[in-house]
Specification:
alpha/beta; six-stranded mixed β-sheet
Length: 507
């Protein structure tokens, strides 16, 4: 697979011209002739180089306000003709069609225009027709034609020109064809998703430039992240990100989205093991760590306020994998960066995607992200008593954490501090027992604490256990046919129960 072809004629029509000048000059040195349109032709001529206009090449003008320029047999015939096919060669001669060996085009910026909130009429004009057709034609005929479909491929083309001149191998052309189809499929995906308006009539997703991870879920597994990591984070220190790191980071960011006041959270295996809201970050860290100082070892830390020197001095005393914050004071970084492998991230303001999906079986599972937020007026009393102001704050706090914990999940909270949680249990009773045992092991007094459950109580066993531990208020979704059993027990034993009407299962 080393069949070499020489570039002789190039069709060039691009939106992005940065970095193109060196390529043009190299091609001219190799005696490659140019055909181009509008602004690109002007750009080539500004370099002092000759360029045939597309109108001259086709004998036909651009029409319909520029909607039809390159869609002509003299263009597509020159690209699609099979050089080793005698019939194709005869037809090229019959219709006076010149071979085109190199196509450099990019596409109208549809996604960028969409991001700017342009009106639909303006957006429709950014749906490329000629460019996408040229890309597909040239990529299809990679046996004879080299296609450069985006600015990202300018540098690889320049490397070929510097190393081989105008000669390209089949391997070169096939690689560029693969990249071209990635461009065209991603472009069409963006357009489809715009028209689909999240109705999920079909599943289409595309992402470029994979981020190579240290390893997958286990060291023997390879892994990649497809997405714009740098749009969400600046990594200012530490080792390469791993697959498990990203899962924990996603869980951490999703949890922290729930809190407005200064809050610190510690996560392990996607579950919070420590959370506290306090007036200053150092206090929030101290009380978050108290929730489970054992599980915090090797965890992922996140705060929604800047990390100062005082907090960094305390945080630096334990081993952790990652810390995420909006920013860090300079003297705080000096402390945190003393361990070379610590991953230190600055979190940027980004809009979370509204849809989630995961691969399973032989397909993809898609759902709307759980963006529901419960406020005080969403807590409907189920018992005779209503929660106090402090209990209401704690119930909402606990409900935020249980929403982001693996089911079955129970969280115990007191004074906006996570005392303990039971997560990922096959029984809700086991989750509660786990949480109570952990809280007691770390010397929390649960008298006056509140409890949150991610799903309803089918039997009163959980509230019975909670009452014995000193829990005074409970929040749950409600909706069990046996709700009355739990409510009656709470009324008899002085426990306040409220419901949200929203279940928060998480797998």
């Amino acid at each position: 697979m080393t069949a070499s072809k020489r570039l002789k004629r190039a069709l060039i029509s691009v939106y992005h011209k940065e970095g193109l000048d060196e390529i043009i000059k190299k091609l001219y040195e190799e005696e490659v002739r140019f055909v181009s349109t509008g602004g690109t032709r002007t750009f080539i001529e500004s370099l002092g180089l000759p360029c045939e206009t597309l109108e001259t090449h086709t004998g036909y003008p651009s029409i319909l306000g520029g909607r039809v320029k390159t869609l002509h047999p003299r263009v597509f015939g020159g690209i699609l003709a099979r050089r080793d096919n005698e019939t194709d060669r005869q037809q090229l001669a019959e219709y006076n069609i010149s071979e085109i060996d190199l196509v450099i085009v990019d596409l109208y910026p549809f996604e960028q225009t969409l991001a700017l909130g342009a009106a639909e009429a303006a957006l429709i004009e950014k749906i490329d027709i000629g460019g996408i057709s040229l890309i597909r034609a040239a990529a299809k005929n990679y046996n004879d034609v080299l296609v450069v479909a985006s600015q990202a491929q300018y540098m690889p083309l320049l490397h070929i020109l510097e190393e081989k001149g105008a000669e390209t191998t089949l391997e070169d052309r096939r690689w560029f064809a693969k990249e071209a189809f990635a461009v065209s499929s991603g472009y069409d995906t963006a357009i489809f998703n715009y028209f689909d308006r999240r109705e999920a009539s079909a599943f289409r997703s595309a992402a470029d430039a994979p981020m190579h991870l240290r390893y997958g879920e286990n060291p023997h597994q390879k892994a990649w992240f497809f997405g714009n990591f740098e749009e969400a984070f600046d990594q200012i220190h530490g080792k390469e990100i791993s697959y498990n790191n990203l899962l924990d980071m996603d869980a951490a960011v999703s949890l922290m989205e729930e809190f407005d006041e200064p809050t610190f959270a510690i996560l392990k295996h996607n579950n919070a093991c420590g959370v506290a809201s306090r007036p200053c970050v150092a206090e929030a860290w101290k009380d978050a760590l108290a929730g489970d100082p054992v599980s915090a070892f090797g965890g992922v830390l996140i705060a929604n306020v800047n990390i100062d020197k005082e907090a960094a001095g305390e945080i630096g005393n334990i081993f952790f994998e990652i810390i995420i914050a909006p920013d860090y004071d300079t003297d705080a970084l000096e402390i945190l960066m003393q361990k070379k492998n610590r991953i230190i991230l600055i979190r940027k303001e980004t809009q979370p995607p509204p849809l989630q999906y995961r691969s399973l079986l032989n397909g993809v599972l898609m759902q709307h992200k759980d963006l529901s937020v419960q406020m005080a007026n969403d807590l409907t009393p189920m018992t005779h008593s209503c929660p106090t102001a402090q209990e209401t704050e704690d119930l909402l706090f606990a409900n935020k954490i249980v929403k982001h914990s693996k089911s079955n999940a129970i969280t115990l909270v007191k004074n906006k501090q996570l005392c303990a949680s039971g997560t990922g249990q096959t029984s809700r009773v086991d989750a509660l027992k786990q949480a109570i045992e952990k809280a007691q092991n770390f010397h929390f007094n649960l008298s006056g604490a509140v409890m949150a459950s991610d799903a309803f109580f089918p039997f009163p066993d959980c509230v019975e256990i909670a009452a014995k531990a000193g829990i005074t208020a409970v929040v749950q979704p409600g909706g069990s046919i046996n709700d009355k059993l739990s409510v009656d027990y709470c009324n008899e034993h002085g426990i306040t129960m409220v419901k949200t009407g929203i279940r928060h299962f998480k797998h």
